[in-house]
Design a protein that fits this description.
The protein has helices spanning 2-10, 15-29, 33-43, 125-134, 157-168, 193-207, 226-239, 260-266, 277-290, 306-315, 324-329, 332-341, and strands at residues 52-54, 57-59, 63-65, 86-92, 105-108, 113-116, 141-146, 174-178, 216-220, 243-246, 270-273, 297-300, 319-322. It has a single domain, classed as TIM Barrel, CATH 3.20.20. Strand 12 (297-300), helix 10 (306-315) and strand 13 form a beta-alpha-beta unit. The protein has twelve helices and 13 strands.
């Protein structure tokens, strides 16, 4: 029904406008137990075979909602009603910021892709914390993807990450350090070995001050060389973080069906969806092989079918996340993946 009836209607509208409208409608509908039960009966798959234990956390299933979809935790734990085993909010910054000027989100239907240059638009960490305080977690696994404000220079970036980490610590199960978005000027420079190690060590030091530290993952770009990936593996070991999320969006535009004129008109931004699938899988496979599986990897990028999900897991991912596939395929994609994995 989603692909035949709902998606054609949604795709008539500007991407960001319909996203916000859909969120408002979902937030309202999910207040009703009857709606939640209806969705659970249709999309939730429960089985001990689907459980995964990663970093000491038991995930009811390995399919999560990637960061960027519910930036401000406006729906939060209620995404579980569509079958997700975990939800990642964010990217969250210390202070609210509007992000980059609109129009900044574009569909590529011929490629089953999306280009975005959102720029960490969010209402700030205080607003997210207030929402999380009111949520009934009921055992739902929740992660927080954190970043720096656009006007914070890189040499002071750690301060922003530490603020978000401390304020969110008691309300989430794991953290993701986002230094790989292509839409915040200079952010990807933090992926270099020296500044990245320094940043992550400050976070792990703060984490270890708590009685029960939370797992910290690093979200990395797909556009790194093998030597840079080797550096990332070394950084994971030396910094004491727990794992990697592979990958963020790509800045490459090779091999697309969408015509060059349209791409030039859209301009800069990170590309997600089907065109990212192979690049993301290759990165997962490389990291898993070179690290000898010594840390968990959450695979994300171009998962549009159950077969894509299996490919990521077979490449070495412990868990996977959906974003663009969820936009194009709807919640039935989660259900189909879980049925195959079960």
């Amino acid at each position: 029904m989603y692909r035949r009836l709902i998606r054609p209607f949604l795709f008539l509208w500007d991407v960001e406008s319909i996203h916000l409208l859909t969120f408002s409608i979902l937030s309202f509908l999910l207040k009703f137990q009857g709606i939640r039960t209806l969705l659970q009966n249709k999309y939730v798959v429960q089985s001990p075979k689907l459980e995964r234990v990663v970093c000491g956390i038991t995930f009811p299933n390995p399919v999560g909602l990637a960061a960027g979809f519910d930036k401000d935790a406006k729906i939060g734990v209620e995404w579980k009603n569509m079958g997700f085993g975990f939800i990642e909010i964010g990217t969250i910054t210390p202070r609210p910021q509007p992000g980059n000027p609109r129009k900044r989100l574009f569909r590529l239907p011929k490629d089953e892709g999306i280009i975005n240059r959102m720029g960490f638009n969010n209402e700030g960490v205080e607003a997210a914390v207030e929402r999380l305080k009111k949520m009934e977690r009921r055992g739902v696994i929740l992660g927080a993807n954190i970043g720096k404000n656009k006007d914070t220079p890189n040499e002071k970036a750690a301060h922003d990450y530490l603020i978000c980490f401390e304020k969110l610590f008691h309300y989430v199960d794991y953290f993701v350090v986002n230094v790989s978005s292509p839409n915040t000027p200079g952010l990807r420079e933090l992926q270099e070995k020296e500044p990245l190690t320094k940043l992550l060590k400050q976070l792990t030091d703060k984490n270890n001050h708590f009685a029960k530290p939370k797992p910290i993952f690093l979200k990395k770009a797909p556009d790194l060389t093998e030597s840079q990936l080797d550096d990332i593996i070394e950084v994971v070991k030396t910094s004491g973080i727990q794992g990697i999320i592979a990958t963020n969006t790509t800045i490459e535009r090779t091999g697309l069906r969408t015509d060059v004129h349209t791409l030039e008109k859209i301009g800069a931004g990170g590309l997600s969806g089907s065109p990212l699938k192979q690049k993301s899988t290759d990165v997962i496979r490389y990291l898993h092989y070179k690290s000898k599986g010594t840390f968990p990897i959450i695979g994300v990028g171009g998962i549009m079918t159950p077969e894509d999900a299996e490919e990521k897991l077979n490449a070495g991912a412990s868990l996977i996340q959906l974003y663009t596939g969820f936009v194009y395929q709807g919640p039935s994609l989660v259900y189909k993946i879980l049925k195959v994995l079960k």
